[in-house]
Amino acid sequence: MNRVTCTPPEVYAVDFETYYDNECSVVPLGPRAYCRHPNFDAYLVVVTGPEGTWVGHPSDYEWRKLKGKIVVSHNAAFDKTVYLWLHENDPKTYPHPDEFEEWNCTANLTAFLCNRRSLAQAWEYLYGNTVSKAVRTDMKGQRWETMEPAFQEKVMDYAVGDGEKCRKVWLDFHGRWPEQERLASLLTIHSTVEGVGVNMDLVKEYIAACQVELMAIESELPWMKDGKGIPTSPKEIALHCRKCGIPLPPVKYTDAEGFEAWEAEHSEKHSWIKGLGNWRQVNKALKTLETIQRRTVWLGDHYNMDAPLKYFGAHTGRWSGDSGVNFQNFRKKPIQANGVDIDIRKVFIPRPGYKFVIADYSQIEPRCAAWLSGDDEFLQMVRDGWSVYEAHAKASMGWTGKNLKQTDPALYALAKASRLGLGYGCGAAKFQVVAKALAGLELTEEESTKAVKDFRENNPKITGLWKTLQRTFAHSQGKKRDGSAKYFDMELPSGRMMRYPSVKAVVYTRKLKPGEEKPKDPKDLLESRLTADIGGKRVPFYGGKLCENLVQATARDVFLTGLLRVALAGYHIPFHVHDELVIEVPEDEPMEEVVSLLQVAPDWMSDLPTEVEAVEADHYQK
């Protein structure tokens, strides 16, 4: 794979320092709305280049010096947005950033290198030195013109330090960033800065409906009627559980599955539990809608919100949501609020003159799993026209008919759940939950156990891959002969390397299984698990989970190839969700051309059978 090539002296690091307080802050507002806040002020910039470091007010710098140069920032979507705001207000002083060679992000680079985005954490990991952010904290609520001279000096020293560190990281490590990944970073920054259209009338309608619904629910909660606590008060919930003679719910944040099981078991008999569940859903939707409203600005012909996407947000390289609006995790089904179907996807719309083409790589993960495990028979059935789930039913479930979805919907649902849910070592208890989520199946313990057993017996290539990964991972513990730490590395078909540093066994206290009584001796719940250091956290791994990482990372790289092909063809991609692209296409252009760009498998996996499903729409939809 190609590597980035650039002349080091042509690289300039740019770092803006801006006023912030509790209300005028990038955290609640996002970069674009933050710049438009009446209290916003970009009072300082550091530009670090081959001739040294310049620090001062942005309007005093000769920005035309950067024409044709590579610009880098740590969290470039923010710094580029600030610069675009300055350009919009004073284009003579600030030439358009398109005149720079590129504006890339060292936070994205360090995320790729070591799963650390913050400059302080990345600097400590890469260079072994700690960085204090105390000055940045003390800058809150302070304007440049009212700062004490001594503190101004501290602010300038702090800013210069960050700018010089940013440039050094780029110069030292950009050569380890594959060209495709560098382009992915640039595209993510572009999507975030350019944003996505918003139907503000619908946002306001949804907010009003949610507010009315919350008041109605609160009026029916027993403790709210008595004027006690808040809707989610742990104290009041505990009191009412004792009154009703039911166990306390697990903490939802740490045990979502356990909480949902408790809610399902008791909500029919106790209406307040069902009301509380509805309140949580509606309140979550309201908070998301309010965030969208805060972050949205008027651009002259449409409302627009910066689209927060985090490049390399997961260890596998997949993108994640960012800044309070998680495009990767919108609720699948609408919720009811005051008689209105609340579907947050609908508020995102194309710019005037465009339509959305929503294109999805169909069953990309099971296709990649078969390719990686060498299951050529399965792949050939898919190439011959059988769907992924039909191919699985033929290969593993004894099915011999035609059109499985129509002739045997129950078997089709089980085949779908099995192919998607059992490829990563899922056990019977977990598969009951997974089968319901993926295919709406209510499996008994016996049915789930049989499905797991059948899958493992009939898919020796995928189970063999689990065992190989588990064995190799276990052998990666300890140190090399030279005393350095071992790593577990997985080279992906694309050539990208996934590294798992510092593999070692750690003793954990496992959770009780459903129906299992707590043992008298707490030691009976202890178990040893192999772990690796992922982004500074100790994460357990086993063969099936490593296989899941391998498959998801490979599917992500296939997706990225198509993503870049579409972007390089000139189409704007406001955002993307897992294996799905949302593409803006001129209203009078048929979608077939853009879809054809996605159908082609990457060169390094040219025999992978890919399929893309696409629809045209005037708003985002699933």
CATH superfamily of the largest domain: Ribonuclease H-like superfamily/Ribonuclease H
Beta strands, count: 22
Strand order of the largest sheet: 3-2-1-4-5
| Biggest sheet layout | 5 strands, mixed
CATH architecture of the largest domain: 2-Layer Sandwich
Shape: globular
Helix vs. strand class: alpha+beta
Poorly predicted residue ranges: 1-8
The number of helical runs is: 22
Beta-strand fraction estimate: 15-25%
Distance separating the two termini: 34 Å
Overall average residue pLDDT: 93
User: What is the count of distinct domains?
Assistant: 4
Helix content: 40-55%
- Give the C-alpha Rg: 27 Å
Return the CATH topology of the largest domain. Nucleotidyltransferase, domain 5
Under the CATH scheme, which class of the largest domain? Alpha Beta
Mind explaining what this structure looks like?
44% of the residues lie in helices and 17% in strands. The longest helix is centred in the C-terminal third of the chain and has 26 residues, at 543-568. With 622 residues, the protein is α+β, with helices and mostly antiparallel strands. The strands form 7 sheets. It has a 5-stranded mixed beta sheet with strand order 3-2-1-4-5, with helices on both faces. The protein folds into 4 domains: 8-195, Ribonuclease H-like superfamily/Ribonuclease H (Nucleotidyltransferase, domain 5); 198-305; 354-363 and 548-617, Alpha-Beta Plaits (2-Layer Sandwich); 376-458, no CATH class. Strand 2 (42-49) and strand 3 form a beta hairpin. 37% of the residues are buried. The chain is built from 22 helices and 22 strands. The two termini are 34 Å apart.
